[in-house]
Design a protein that fits this description.
By secondary structure, this protein is of the alpha/beta class. It folds into three domains: 69 residues, no CATH class; 73 residues; 159 residues, no CATH class. Helices cover 48% and strands 14% of the residues. It contains 15 helices and ten strands. The strands form three sheets. The protein has a six-stranded mixed sheet with strand order 5-6-7-8-10-9, with helices on both faces. Strands 1-2 form a two-stranded parallel ribbon. A two-stranded antiparallel sheet has the order 3-4. Helix 1 packs parallel to helix 2, helix 5 packs parallel to helix 7 and helix 9 packs across helix 10. The longest helix has 22 residues. The N and C termini lie far apart (61 Å).
Length: 399
């Protein structure tokens, strides 16, 4: 019916027709094959019956992923392949920092409302130019937060608030990406990021290419695989820890915060006992098994600060650890998460000190998760303070 309709439509036109099928990747199985075969047949027989000049299938996946979905292993499609008329697959690139500024300036020229330079910088930080996010941040501020009152300039604080709103609201665009986290091929790529596993990144691997094509991840300047932008990073972590946060006691909220300081040492001491009592439960239910300790401690921290503090995170394949920093009342609390046995303690301390330098912090925390079955909990749980040669203090916490 699609092929016949397109021929009838083209016969009524006096110009060549180009069609964009949006969200074509929603099709699957036999429906997908039938759809593509009608397009192929129309193209082959276009000399006999009018047909569109060109067709674009728009979605989150490369056409080869359609092929993988309908034919696995030695399974045959039977008959002519519906995929052999594809000329090329294109990925739309992100905006540059300059283009983000230009887009916002177009709004300023049309309305008189100014985006302060710091606001543009924060929009670039949160989105790294992802077009939907760039527009969504501005729309949230201009239409929702400032209610189209163009007399108010847009500030960095407005952009940060809009980013937090997007994280909590999870619009369709973000939800569609997060649905992918359940797919085994995506899990293979995301899981090593959550622990910073030392793993070589192959751009030729289908799973890696799939996640890159989705726009969910990117290759950093250092060659590491990491979330495509800070909003995606936060959404990934919050999504994977949402159920864990929901299970945590509500009386954790702000327990170690007094408005001026955060007693992170006491917080981690309480987490040690919590982990001892609940580790088996969490490890049995997780799809991201290797990353579960990292996910649980971040869920625990998120529940404690509950909007009263900002948690900045860094995670990428090959780092050997996950770094996060709790920022509260003008003070930074850098934390490094590691799995035991991956490198000597002295090297881990040196890495932690380097991370502390980024925040000009004299005090830091190194949390080491020990997954070895032969170790008892009494051996795994420990606390030790290490004063480094430059005077920095690192609290080592075993879990």
């Amino acid at each position: 019916m699609i092929g016949d309709y397109l021929s009838i439509f083209c016969r009524a036109l006096d110009k060549p027709l180009i069609i964009f099928f949006d969200e074509a990747d929603c099709l699957s199985g036999q429906t997908l094959i039938t759809f593509l075969r009608q397009l192929r047949n129309g193209y082959i027989n276009r000399a006999k019956a009018p047909f569109p000049w060109s067709i674009a299938l728009v979605g989150m996946r490369d056409i080869r992923d359609f092929k993988a979905e309908v034919r696995s292993g030695s399974e045959s499609l039977v008959g002519a392949s519906p995929f052999n008329v594809v000329t090329e697959a294109l990925t739309l690139s992100n905006f540059t920092a300059e283009q983000v500024g230009e887009l916002y300036r177009q709004h300023s020229e049309a309305t008189g409302q100014i985006f302060q330079p710091e606001a543009i910088e924060r929009a670039w930080y949160w989105t790294e130019g992802q077009p939907w996010l760039v527009n969504a941040l501005a729309r949230q501020v201009v239409e929702k937060d400032l209610k189209r009152d163009y007399s108010f300039p847009v500030t960095a604080e407005h952009i940060d608030g809009a980013a937090d709103t997007l994280l909590k609201r999870r619009d369709t665009h973000i939800d569609s990406l997060l649905e992918r986290l359940k797919e085994p091929r995506v899990r293979k790529v995301i899981a090593p990021m959550l622990t910073g596993a030392k793993k070589e990144v192959s751009l030729l691997h289908d799973d890696t290419r799939f996640c890159l094509d989705l726009g969910l991840v990117k290759i950093s300047a250092a060659g590491a695989l990491e979330p495509a932008n800070p909003i995606y990073r936060e959404v990934i972590l919050r999504t994977l820890t949402f159920d864990d946060q929901d299970d945590l006691p509500t009386d954790l909220i702000n327990r170690w915060m007094d408005g001026k300081t955060l007693d992170l040492t006491a917080l981690l001491k309480a987490f040690q006992q919590f982990w001892r009592e609940n580790a088996d439960v969490y490890l049995k239910k997780s799809e991201y098994l290797e990353a579960m300790p990292h996910l649980v401690i971040q869920a625990y921290l998120q529940r404690v600060v509950n909007g009263g503090a900002l948690i900045a995170r860094e995670m990428a394949v090959g780092r050997g650890r996950v770094d996060l920093c709790v920022q509260y009342a003008g003070k930074a609390y850098p934390v490094e998460l590691k799995l035991a046995g991956r490198e000597p303690l002295e090297k881990s301390l040196k890495r932690t000190a380097g991370y502390m330098d980024a925040f000009a912090a004299k005090e830091g925390w190194l949390v080491i998760f020990d997954r070895r079955a032969e170790k008892s909990w009494d051996e795994k749980l420990f606390r030790e303070d290490k004063t480094l040669p430059d005077g920095k203090l690192v609290h080592v916490v075993g879990c």
